[in-house]
């Protein structure tokens, strides 16, 4: 069970971090290298943000579950720190998917993609995603210590002579 828990944590956190990096790279590619006009590129990337936001919530929840399972195995500081960092990331993911994406999509569909309100929200969502990427990178940096803690066999309790 301990190997499954460690693997589950590594895979989910890695997928989350990889997704954040891939999203940033794809958005830059669509706007900078695709040759699409700004409006068409905006439509393409809005679909990416909607789907990524949903997937991020699922992967974030699975990462939290994986670390909680590790906590059941080893109730140490590194496990609690990793859980707290992932919790912070999950809050950011909920804010992104539940607040920023719907508001930005509503403004974009209403034709207000050039409005000051859209630009302000867009800038804040960029800052949130940058912070979220750094947060999940930090979580990934805790993975080796987490795996060591979870994979270290528990010492057998020595029985007292009767």
How would you describe what is shown here?
By secondary structure, the protein is mainly alpha-helical. It has four helices and no strands. Helix 1 (2-33) packs antiparallel against helix 2, helix 2 packs antiparallel against helix 3 and helix 3 (77-109) runs antiparallel to helix 4 (116-151). The two termini are 33 Å apart.
Order of helices and strands: HHHH
Mean pLDDT reading: 91
- Radius of gyration, in Å, reads 20 Å
Q: How much beta, percentage-wise? A: under 5%
Distance between the termini: 33 Å
Tell me the number of helical segments per DSSP (H or I, 4 or more residues long): 4
Give the % helix. Answer: over 70%
Domain count: the total is: 1
Global morphology:
elongated
Instruction: Return the structural class.
Output: mainly alpha
- Total strand count, please? 0
Uncertain stretches: none
Largest sheet: none
Brief characterization of the structure:
The protein has helices spanning 2-33, 38-73, 77-109, 116-151.
Layout of secondary structure:
Blueprint: H1 2-33, H2 38-73, H3 77-109, H4 116-151
Helix pairs in contact: 1-2, 1-4, 2-3, 3-4
